[in-house]
Amino acid sequence: MNGKEPDKPRAGAGGASSNGKVIIAIIIAVAALTFVFSNVAPATLSFLFLQFTMPAWGWFLAVLLAGVVIGSLFPWFRARKG
Transmembrane region positions (predicted)? Predict the structure, then answer.
């Protein structure tokens, strides 16, 4: 053997950037969920000739989940690797 140690992963800008994104995502998620669960009054949604009534937090949560699904299906704005 040549006595050299194998390359160890270095903490670089990518690691710091990743941690920052996670912290921002957690802050946004907590704010969104606080908003969602603060609105517990019933709300009615009218779509075409249908009407649905449920707590407002349910509608907000549905829109939040739809945004997450759409964001994961269309990764146009993600940074490209390489």
Answer: 21-50, 56-77
The H-or-E segment that residue 24 falls in is: helix 13-38
Look at residues 64, 3, 67, 7 and name the one whose alpha carbon lies nearest to residue 37. 64
Q: What are the pLDDT digits (tens) for 25-63?
A: 899 889 877 877 787 788 888 888 889 898 888 887 788
This prediction has a pTM of 0.48
The residues near 37 (Cβ < 8 Å, ≥ 6 apart) are: 57
Q: Are 34 and 64 in contact (CB under 8 A)?
A: no
Both tokens assigned to 38: 């603060």
